[in-house]
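Below is our example:
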Amino acid sequence: MSKIIWTRTDEAPLLATYSFKPVVEAFASTADIEVETRDISLAGRILAQFPERLGEKKVEDALAQLGELAKTPEANIIKLPNISASLVQLKKAIAELQADGFDVPDYEDAPEKYAVVTGSAVNPVLREGNSDRRAPIAVKNFAKKYPHKMGAWTADSKTNVATMSDNDFRHNEKSVIMPADDTLTIKLNDTVLLEGLKVLKGEVIDGTFISAKALDEFLKAQVARAKEEGVLFSAHLKATMMKVSDPIIFGHVVRAFFADVYDKYGEELLAAGLNGENGLGAIYEGLKSLENGEEIKAAFDAALENGPDLAMVNSAKGITNLHVPSDVIIDASMPAMIRTSGHMWNKNDEEQDTLAVIPDSSYAGVYQAVIEDCKANGAFDPSTMGTVPNVGLMAQKAEEYGSHNKTFKVPENGTVQVTNSAGDVLIEHDVEAGDIWRACQTKDAPIQDWVKLAVNRARLSGMKTIFWLDPERGHDANLITLVEKYLKDHDTEGLDISIASPVEATKISIERIRKGEDTISVTGNVLRDYNTDLFPILELGTSAKMLSVVPLMAGGGLFETGAGGSAPKHVQQVEEENHLRWDSLGEFLALAESFRHELNAHGNAKAGVLADALDKATETLLDEGNSPSRKVGENDNRGSHFHLTLNWAKELAAQTDDAELAETFKPVAEALEAKAGEIEQALLDVQGSPVDLGGYYAPNEEKLNETMRPVAAFNEIIDGLKK
């Protein structure tokens, strides 16, 4: 029996799993496929670290197991979005598990153990292949037919991106290609920061730093600029994924915005650990235990009042852009802003032009290029615009960022050196105390696979294909030489494949978008992350509707359910109103590709029939407007699952490729159709009242089932199908 692994993750996707997975299990069983759950949620990852403390309650390290599975040809994994935990989220999850009776230590008592749980803990382990993300034809056609709202742009918009012009990660980067397998050491003066770093022949190794002094000068200037120009000040970082560097940078932003407060009270604040790295919310909380906390809080409030207007996350609750580092994540926040006329929300809950502060200049220019285009040409039109799929380099932990064990806050002035086993200096930087220095590594085999995938996608799609690489960056300059080398290994006759800097590539791509033309972006890991939000949010209204396939290098498949996050606001709505507005379209698309993989890899013809029927069922769902509504009392995630199930069963009953499946599904389709009105009404009737899930990070199994499978008539039909 073949096996599909359906990951148990967090927040809205977890809730949706309890509604949809029983359907998947039942339908898959008719093709002799088992669907198994593995827990890679934040709570599951925490518990897996402490088997020795949990006794009978110990859990297996599902993430490590899946990481090993991903390296085998048998792998077929459907990966839903998970929490890339910030420190704030981690501590809340720990507290909840402790309250549930799990003997896990406080963060402060085991920071090393918890380090492997936070930030981008999941994706690098599972991604033993490069990324192929694109808008499925059905979804793109739907967006053209029913375009989502786009805010108007005017030429006089004051919205801009502010970024550093020197002394940041981009400008300080140095890169080498390893001539042979080796072991590297990273040291500051005479202190070893990291030793025993094993590297392979052909591997690209980078080192760079951002100057704390230059960063502070830059941020101070942007606070003044926002005030002068009368625009919102907003910072856009990725404090979850880049869990070492970006919280530190976030702290610099907070201290720059509240410079007067830190000038006066800095000594006390820093002594209390209130350096801004956990956000303004944590500062306000910490002030409660300081003797003159009220006085200092008044100073923060006055600075908020007198400084530039600050972008808000939630105006009603007074939550600003600077409250929580994980609240404003650049890859989602920037395209959302561009889609909304270049506006973010001010304290009066009104839209306003914005200065988007992105300190490191590596990719900031991409967003500025889109903004300038919108000023010149107006908003994009989803009904006519082309598409920008992505082929992203991410296999085998292709870092380029997120290199957590190789990122350091420099403790003293001096020189950072990366040396090989012979003692030769490969990379060297003069640094000052407070600077953030990091190294990254990208292996050669993934680079070769990435180039191959790009050529394959160019051939299959016929689209113009651009490698987004910056010749002025150390890492990218080396990548350009390798791309040029490895392109010669492939037949590129008749294909339009080129290399351009990210800014130039953006300009070309958006010029083509406006003409309805399609362009594949072939990028490194960061731009993969950014582009698979930027273009889908503009094209489709959301990145969650992307098809995200990871052809694993060992021959298996990883199918990611869209590029969207895990939607904490959706969970809050369930708790308040028992309405889940999460759209499982990403799950439907990924599942179809997972079934198709079973056909292509193992010759399972029934799986292929399930896949084709599911695609048609999804298209019908979209056309008939049965995706979830945001409003209570209307169709939600559970209702969309019912409609999808009904459509899918009808397609399978009607198809002629497999008589056995048609026979199996005729009574299922009839039963669902006969009870459709009853089931739909029952799914609406349960909404409108608060619901207790028995926890947030580790909700109660029974309560999840009750909440997400509330209609017995539907459950009986599905459970009766399972073989």
Notes: The CA atoms of residues 679 and 712 lie 9 Å apart.
